[in-house]
Amino acid sequence: MTKLRRKVYMVAGYNTISMGTGRKEFHPKKPRPDLEDYIKEAGQAVLKMIGGAKNVDETVIGNFIGALFNRQANMAAFAPMIDEGLRYKPAIRVEGACGTGALALATGIKSILAETAEVALILGVEVQNTVKAMYGADILAAAGWAKERKTGHAYFFPGKFSDRSKAYAEKFGADKTRAAMAKWYQNAIENARLCPTAQEFHNNTNDLIACGMNKPNPKGFVDSLNFFDCSKVSDGASAIAIVSEEGLKRCGISKKDAVEIIGFGQAEEDITKPPADHTKLSTTKVAVEKAMQMAGITKEQIGTVECHDCFTIAGIMATEAIGFAEHGKGPDFVIEGNTSRTGSVPFNTTGGLIGWGHPTGATGVHQAVTIWEQLTGKAGDAQIEIKPEKPYGLTINMGGDDKSLVSIVYKRAE
Amino acid sequence: MNYTEKLQNVSVLGAAGKMGSGILLLTAMEMADLSLKPENKGKHFVLNAMDVSSEALLGLMKYVKAQVLKAAEKKIVGLRDFYADREDLINNSEIINQYVEDVLFIIRPTTVLEATYESSVIFEAIKEDPALKVKIFKQINENSKTKPWFCTNTSSIPINELDSKAGLNGRVLGVHFYNPPAIQKLVEIIKTDKTEADLVEFANTFSKNLKKIVVPSADFAGFVGNGHFMRDALHGIKEAEELAKKYSFTEAVYMMNKISQEYLIRPMGIFQLIDYVGIDVCQYIMSVMNPYLKDEDLHSSLLDKMIEIGVRGGQNFDGSQKDGFLKYDKGRPVAIYDVNKKSYMNIADFQAKCDAELGKMADSVKPWKAVVGDKGKDDYLKGYYNDLKTLKAMGSELAIKYAKRSKEIGLKLVADKVANNYNDVNTVLLTGFFHAYGPINDYI
Predict the structure, then answer these.
(1) Residue A272 has pLDDT above 90, yes or no
(2) Which residues of A touch B74 (CB under 8 A)?
(3) What ipTM was estimated for this complex?
(4) What is the per-residue DSSP string for B392-430?
(5) Is residue B78 within 8 angstroms of chain A, CB to CB?
């Protein structure tokens, strides 16, 4: 598909708090909201903004791995719990590891395109603080190839991206790479401080660069990443409605409060194969190219990006995959400040996965909500200026180690 | 000395006690780690957990299981390498559970002393009773097939006395852990003129593998740790007794506890620390040390009185604090025992009055927690003590007097050659007592 056959919009985004260490209200031994609470909170908030459940044709719930974190599968059946009005209506649960959220969005977009729905409620959710980090690492390792678990690191995914970071540093310079990772961390936290739902909203550390420059400790963690390079363990949900032109009218939402989906790209890579080049996010690159091609835009027209910075190095590599920086120059691009909120193309303006949080199945939806907020002027203290010559927003959501990719291009509806 | 060989059969005496359980836990993990090394595959490791109470041994096994689980979770990165050749163990959870099993399977809980007769190393952490220790050492030594090494956790009894009375011929060493052994970093090592060099080397390697900080102490009753603590405690008690002439007993205890905690920026007040160690244990240690001291009477009739009434402090098996001089609610002192009325009086009822009597605290005062890990604490403490000196209030004066006495005790331990140097004294207080600063300093 080179062009969308029908107009598709996103409206009425909502994020719960990204709960976990760093939030003042978080205490590992005290009771916390659970899956049901997050699903209700986010789902009901969106329904309220779109005129109620009666307007919804279909629900898509994205959840990575509640079967292990929460002993819960068959998550589509949570849709009617959000509102009785969704009872007996279609619902589907999708999964693609950390790329689950955007797969939920893609599923919704396709429903609108297929005209099987005019209004789709999309919700991503994950509750991961049910187990300690070293057991969570086992669960999250399922995003990789299970046959690699035995030889993998105790902290499987940090291990994977530590390998990437190491390869990148060896090829392009360790000091520069580390400095860029520290800068990425600083941007993430500074942006998160402007967003009340962000996990790092309460972070008041003075010297963020010093944190980011911490030497990795291979004995206790992985070879080439420190804790600040990693997104944290998060609980939370995000939801948004995907609607057609008719759906907009049905919900009574004005176009100025909507973003239009201009293009989207999906790409899948073989989970049983290691990356061909550890210093590149090759699948990400394909997905972004597809999305931009469908949108018919160039990278110079992109005003803001939400990329999948599960680790700082992934953020840096994303700047290259999109084409903002040449291969090997991503660190310079970041160090020069291009990705900061006042830079040439602000990335992850509410903190991204590292700053806002990474409730895995919700992350792709959270990215869409942030872009929707930024392009419609609803981002509050985190609002950036969207310049007329750069009206587009871009999201990249990644499942596994550059395996399941969805990239979407957005623009404020006209 | 073959370190691994020595650790293939070990016994811990008093294994279910407060100190013994920690020593057992650490030893079990060290032995399990050795057993998992490729070169030790097929070797058999046995750790006898000997205690008189069968019921306490059950509690011990539960404690060890919970603690090993925590430790395994912490060192999962290294454990994956240990079990790299076990194809059936894939997830962290499986590896952690296997390690817990491997540690527990080394331990043989027993109430029978005969079980220890095959051990090469005996760790002893029974009651601080010289006669009892001698009796048991003698019995094991006479029946053992291995001429074992004895590592005693005594905190006060001279090692040479245990050696000569039990006839061990240099096969005994003081290996004094601090409470709780699983957490406190300090181990005091006390050798005698006769102690076998191999045994000292073994204990040093063992302590290092347990990631402990070793401070050598001369073989003098109380060693460095209790040499300081008992005198420091006695100072606090005497000051409280002095205050009790003008104030009520509970007020006096409250005030000295506050001086020794908040004013001196220590983790606990002195009366809380006595409760933590146990009033009976403190009394006993003093009585063991006292006969060896010249020109000094290390004895408190107040402690005697408390024991007589039956108020002992100490800890429950789960680590929670029993009531002593202070009464605790979720670990926090809420009342103080009145020896005259024989009941606890709520702190809240007299706290404001006492605080007013003590006078203003220095504006620069910070809680211990904020100071202990602060890299710039040396400058801070200099400034703080300067502020304290200018205050001229009853509280600040008592605090300065206390700090001076604490320093004097430290200096005397070096002068008497119990400690090798000032640094060793400070290390003991920093690592064994979690003080934020050593007593020998130039702040006062």
Answers:
(1) yes
(2) 220
(3) 0.93
(4) -SHHHHHHHHHHHHHHHHHHHHHHTTSBSSHHHHHHHHH
(5) yes
